[in-house]
């Protein structure tokens, strides 16, 4: 469903594609960037929306609600990540919003926490989460795949250097399954930083 190069975008086409995404997702609110890219398999629509006032402006124009704030949900799963990591014997610090990551582990490992909601797309059950930057500003992404009731279904621990996408989309069978429950990576990073400190102090 990707778009052909050179397509002539106009406001009517943007509006029709917004409604197409809403219909395919089965929602009655403004879709997000990640949702439009998941459904259309292309960033053309989200780019055009951004260049013509943004998602909030288009929601106002079409008289539809915007997605409920993700802040509360984000804080909930940051807290859950903090709890899980501390249960493994590490210390954690929850960072303020001015930092490009959410949790600092053992004063050295930076972790960005993401929660991926589930959708039906083209008859398949899939998850999508906005990574928002191709090159990571953290050591590790901790990604919770949620079920329909926003409970944790799967947990991915992915090195930042291995996730060079702006939007992560995955189904049951995914290349990302190699990172399921890879809590051992915390120790690998911790050992790495400790070894660096030893070299520096030599």
Relevant terms:
alpha+beta, Trna Endonuclease, Chain: A, domain 1, 2 domains, seven-stranded mixed β-sheet, 6 helices
Structure commentary:
By secondary structure, the chain is an alpha+beta fold. It folds into 2 domains: 11-62, no CATH class; 71-201, Trna Endonuclease, Chain: A, domain 1 (3-Layer(aba) Sandwich). Helix content is 37%, strand content 22%. The chain is built from 6 helices and 7 strands. Strands 1, 2, 3, 4, 5, 6 and 7 form a 7-stranded mixed beta sheet that branches. A hairpin with a 2-residue loop joins strand 3 and strand 4 (124-130). Helix 1 (11-25) crosses helix 2 (33-40). The radius of gyration is 19 Å and the shape is elongated.
Summarize the amount of helix as a percent range.
Answer: 25-40%
* CATH domain class of the largest domain: Alpha Beta
User: What is the number of helical segments per DSSP (H or I, 4+ residues)?
Assistant: 6
Strand content: 15-25%
- The chain-level mean pLDDT equals 88
- End-to-end Cα distance, whole Å, is 57 Å
Describe the structure in brief.
By secondary structure, this protein is α+β, with helices and mostly antiparallel strands. It has helices at 11-25, 33-40, 44-51, 55-62, 71-87, 184-201, and strands at residues 92-94, 103-105, 109-121, 124-130, 140-146, 152-159, 167-170.
């Amino acid at each position: 469903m990707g778009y052909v190069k050179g397509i002539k975008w106009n406001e009517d086409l943007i509006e029709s594609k917004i409604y197409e995404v809403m219909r395919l997702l089965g929602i009655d609110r403004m879709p997000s960037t990640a949702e439009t890219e998941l459904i259309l398999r292309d960033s053309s629509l989200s780019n055009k929306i951004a260049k013509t006032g943004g998602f909030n402006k288009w929601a106002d124009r079409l008289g539809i609600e915007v997605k409920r704030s993700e802040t509360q949900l984000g804080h909930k799963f940051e807290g859950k990540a903090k709890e899980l990591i501390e249960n493994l014997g590490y210390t954690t610090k929850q960072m303020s919003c001015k930092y490009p990551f959410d949790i600092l582990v053992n004063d050295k490992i930076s972790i960005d926490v993401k929660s991926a909601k589930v959708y039906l797309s083209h008859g398949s059950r899939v998850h999508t989460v906005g990574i928002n930057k191709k090159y990571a500003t953290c050591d590790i992404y901790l990604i919770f795949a949620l079920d329909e009731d926003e409970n944790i279904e799967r947990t991915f621990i992915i090195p930042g250097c291995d996730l060079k996408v702006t939007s992560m989309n995955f189904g049951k069978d995914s290349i990302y399954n190699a990172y399921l429950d890879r809590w051992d990576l915390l120790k690998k990073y911790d050992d790495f930083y400790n070894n660096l400190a030893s070299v520096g102090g030599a």
